[in-house]
Amino acid sequence: MQREGSAFSGLGVVMLKELSDHLASVRMRVLEWLVVLVALAALYGAIQQIKDTTAEDPFLFLRLFTTSRDPLPSFVSFLSFLVPLMAIGLGFDSVNGEHNRRTLSRILSQPIYRDALLFGKFLAGLVTLSISLLTLWLLVVGLGLFLIGIPPGAEEIARSFVFLLVTIVYAGVWLALALLFSVVFRSAATAALVTLGLWLLVTFIWPVLAGALAQIIVPPDPRYTALGLQTPGTAQLEQILARFSPSTLYAEIVVALLDPTTRALGPIYLSQLQGAVLGAPLPFVESILIAWPQMVGMIATAIVLFVIGYVIFQRQEVRA
Amino acid sequence: MIADAVIEANGLTKAYGSAVAVDHISFGVGRGEIFGLLGPNGAGKTTTILMILGLTEISSGDVRVLGFNPAREPLSVKRRVGYLPDTVGFYDNMTAADNLRYTARLIGFRSMEREKRIAAALERVGLAEFADQAVGTFSRGMRQRLGLAEIVMKGAQIAILDEPTSALDPHATAELLGIIRGFKAEGVSVLLSSHLLERVQSVCDRVALFHAGRIALMGSVPDLGRQVLGGGYIVDIDADGVGLPERLALIPGVSGVEKTGIGKIRLHADRDVRPEAAAEVVAMQGRLKYLGVQEPNLEAIYTRYFEANPEQGARERTRHAA
Q1: Is B204 left (phi over 0), alpha (psi -120 to 50) or beta?
Q2: pTM of the predicted model, to two decimals?
Q3: Which residues lie closer than 8 Å to B67 by C-beta, 6 or more apart?
């Protein structure tokens, strides 16, 4: 049977309130400072390195994002673990927080659906993250321009802009996960710990586990091992398993976008390389095509996580 | 059942798996009536309220609120019904007015109307001077009043209050009950739940006594008193005078005389016999020190009912154990 009225009435109100809460919160300010300082450090390292090794590089500007100088990791690798932390930090107490403040039943007794509350919270988190990341992106682009003194080309801007969008989607995945656990667990501390634990598992432990699992399921062929090569079957399975982690997907997209010479994300046979001019950059659209499955996969992950949280929230008891 | 009912429940049931929280209850709340759902904690009062609001699914049975079905038309119901949850929470870092503003936006009031309604509502519950203070600094009583202000602002036709007086000091309770009486005066129907029987007995027009998910008794407090306490008035007298008990026994309507102490006499009667009793004492030239009638008391009704119906209590105990 059709429900009466719109599921989205009140959505804008919830979103604006949550957004102003986020932007005014101490938590957000700490995260922003962390991000800015980290970005500056990474950028500084990158620029030192670039200045030392300036060569005829057509994509010098993109090097800003990917170049690292010991002991600092590159800007991109900083982002890849700061973004999940920011998203989890914003989302881990969004629903159980209302519950613990005992505001949930009061808000839900107003003429809105639960949809509006959950979706409003998700959107507010995503907008907050987008604002921070956009600021950060502009900061990096501006500083890079200022310090290197070479204006970026249109393609470089396009590539780094798509990188920004992908980073926002990546943040959305973790935000949706944090939101899901904030629905499932009544205690905010439990939700935060479980989300962080899952993030650690997926980002740092899963890639190792994927390799081990692949070797168990498809044992390496001794003939390849003798030659010092990876067995194709094992390598393929390892990659398939590793791609269950959004961190792997994100890393692959970033490589394809920011390193235009990337021709494939995964093992390829020598026969596939016939006729290829190694080291020659791919056009922008081709790079996007390479990473397209990963992008779709990441968007789908975010949607699936949100939907699971939504379904649980719909059926949940609101009483304390 | 009730001629002009704003809430009508028929065989309302809520089961969590095999545990039945609310078991086929039926009741009606009339327009402008204060109806009390009373009973111990865990008797199913809050679950009943959540079903009326459409905040929890109904296992079986049917409920209508102002003619709407809360499960199918939740927005229509929630637009017309104000709800004060048990230990209501507000956003502590926001001011009282901002908290109401957020709710008003959710309801969809335009800005002009919003401000007017908020100011009037805060005035009404006596929080006008605290409008711009953060709710974090509020006492429990003030929070409850702010919750009522939200209902006033909403312009609700029905106010549903869950344990509005629990954990409040006597002064705050009196204030709150005063506001609730004000609702009735404005024609707002009130459904309130409480486990503190004697505190709310004074405001309720009718009550339903809950016990283990069922309504054990329903009606006005005096009616229930007559029904359960044997339909009598109990008049206590403290006076001296020789042969007073014998004289008092002759008053028409008195069914029993009991000596409860030196000079203390308790009369069981089918009506209020205080005037006659006083006249008798004076006629015997006795000194009348005390004369009082025991109002039917919910606590007594509740206890007496379950003493008188032990088989019902026993059945519910086994159901609890199961």
Answers
A1: beta
A2: 0.86
A3: none
- Sorted by where each begins, the domain ranges of chain B are 5-89+157-226, 231-294
Interchain proximity B150–A106, CB inside 8 Å: yes
What is the three-class DSSP state of A225? Answer: helix
Q: Which residues make Cβ contacts (< 8 Å) with residue A167, sequence separation at least 6?
A: A79, A83, A133, A250
Q: Does residue A269 or residue B104 have the better pLDDT?
A: B104
From CA B290, how far away is CA A178, in angstroms rounded? 68
Task: Decide if B72 touches A, using CB distance below 8 A.
Answer: yes
∠ CA B197-B199-B201 to the nearest 5 degrees?
Answer: 65
Q: Which H or E run includes A128?
A: helix A114-148
With an 8 Å Cβ cutoff, are B106 and A13 in contact?
yes
**Tell me, what amino acid is at B15?**
A
From start to end of A103-244, where are the E strands? none
Nearest to B253 by CA among B271, B236, B234, B235: B271
Determine the residue of chain B that is closest to A1 in CA distance: B72
Least CB–CB distance from A106: residue in B56, B73, B89 = B89
Q: Residue A103: closest CA among chain B residues belongs to which residue? A: B89
Q: Which fold has domain B5-89+157-226?
A: Rossmann fold (3.40.50)
pLDDT per position as a tens digit, B27-56: 999 999 999 998 888 888 999 999 999 899
Choose from A22, A26, A109, A318 for mutation: most chain B CBs within 10 A.
A109
Query: How far is it, in rounded angstroms, from Cα B19 to Cα A318?
Result: 18
B89 closest CB neighbour out of A17, A101, A319: A101
Round to whole Å and give the CA distance between A193 and A302: 20
User: Pick from A111, A318, A319: which is nearest to B75 by CB?
Assistant: A111
ipTM: 0.86
Instruction: Give A271's DSSP letter.
Output: G
Burial of A102 (0-12, 13-18, 19+ CB in 10 A): middle
Q: B219, exposed or middle or buried, with CB in 10 Å at 0-12, 13-18, 19+?
A: middle
pLDDT along chain A (320 residues), means of 10: 77 93 88 81 81 70 79 82 91 92 92 93 95 88 82 87 95 96 95 95 91 88 82 86 91 88 73 70 86 94 96 85
Q: Report the alpha-carbon angle A202-A203-A206, nearest 5.
A: 50
In the 8-state DSSP scheme, what is residue B83? E
Report the residue of A27, A105, A117 to disrupt the B interface, i.e. the one with the largest count of B CBs within 10 Å.
Answer: A105
- Rounded to 5 degrees, φ, ψ at B127 are -115, 15
Q: Name the architecture of domain B231-294.
A: 2-Layer Sandwich (3.30)
Residue pair B126/B155 in contact by the 8 Å Cβ criterion:
no
CB pair distance less than 8 Å for A110 and B92? no
Nearest Cβ partner for A5 among B75, B82, B89: B75
Dig out the tokens for B149 from the structure.
């202000």
Confidence of residue B62 (pLDDT cuts 50, 70, 90): very high
